[in-house]
Design brief:
By secondary structure, this protein is an all-alpha fold. The protein has eight helices and no strands. The longest helix is centred in the N-terminal third of the chain and has 20 residues.
Length: 173
């Protein structure tokens, strides 16, 4: 296990041999940053699928750093990265940190893309799930209802994208 963690740590912190002169994301050329971001997104997805949450958290933080460097703090991509980090924190029962990150992602999307943006659905669902986890059922219900409303506005009534939020509302009741 220690050998595996060491290898994972080396993979996460060691740059590709072609980019050995960039020890941190901000020191890398933009093409290397995009390549590393793509690799980290794939690794993050795999780590979440296989419930390797500590690894996923490290990756989510790196993805957030890359996104801020490449896209700026107030971008949809950085809001997505923040949402990914919040989901990892939620899985690790870091509820307060997850809540703050979901809220920050929501504020960013609202500022960049508007209050009815479809990009709000995922962080709203995450914030609702976080509220459920800490027994704040009224707050959870409001988040899920808002996600349903946004889906309704963008995709029409009774669309398949609403199912997850509607199931969560039923669970809340």
């Amino acid at each position: 296990l220690a050998g595996i963690l060491l290898v994972i740590g080396m993979q996460l912190s060691m740059p590709e041999s072609a980019h050995a002169d960039c020890p941190t994301p901000s020191d890398c050329p933009q093409s290397a940053q995009v390549e590393a971001l793509t690799r980290d997104l794939e690794s993050y997805s795999e780590a979440m699928t296989y419930e390797r949450y500590s690894e996923a958290e490290v990756l989510a933080k790196r993805i957030m750093e890359f996104s801020i460097i490449l896209n700026g703090l107030e971008s949809i991509y950085s809001a997505h990265a923040l949402t990914n980090l919040a989901f990892v924190q939620l899985k690790q029962t870091q509820y307060e940190t997850a809540r703050l990150n979901f809220e920050a992602a929501i504020r960013t999307v609202e500022k960049v893309d508007g209050i009815l943006s479809q990009e709000l659905i995922q962080p709203l669902q995450g914030l609702g799930t976080t509220a459920l986890a800490v027994q704040e059922t009224d707050g959870a219900r409001l988040m899920f209802e808002r996600a349903v409303h946004i889906s309704h506005v963008n995709d029409g009534p009774q669309n398949p994208a609403q199912i997850e939020s509607l199931e969560a509302i039923a669970e809340t009741y």
